[in-house]
Amino acid sequence: MDITDKVIAITGAGRGLGRAIALRLANQGAILALVDVNRADLEVTEAEVRSRDGRCTLFVCNVADEPEVEATFAAMEEQLGALHGLVNCAGILRDGMLIKVKEGALVEKMSLAQWQAVIDVNLTGTFLCGREGAALMAKGGQGGVIINISS
Description:
This protein is 46% helix and 23% strand. It has four helices and seven strands, in the order E-H-E-H-E-H-E-E-E-H-E. The protein has a five-stranded parallel β-sheet, sandwiched between helices. Strands 5-6 form a two-stranded antiparallel sheet.
């Protein structure tokens, strides 16, 4: 598939798998909309993309926040025009077990706040970005691809 000059948004692009995907797509000639909650991480990805002569625009966004997601995708449309693809890669881990037991005694339980943070980013964020991305792709009339990644 030729993605030269196609606009592709990547959530979670600040590091890890999102950054690796951004670099791969930049090497293939895509125009990238890099999305992450952390500007400093995005700037590192941006520098790596540009060092490969790639093209990208940064969007700082909490994917779990509906108004932020809506504003981010509106800004993408304004700044980049059509959207041809979306890679939903944003995700968090709250490294905790459901419960911790030591010597037969319950010593800790995963908090509802930890659980909710994971659900908000990993599931709700995927839904919100997918919805907004699909709307832009439909509006553009050229179709598109949405890839959801989880681990």
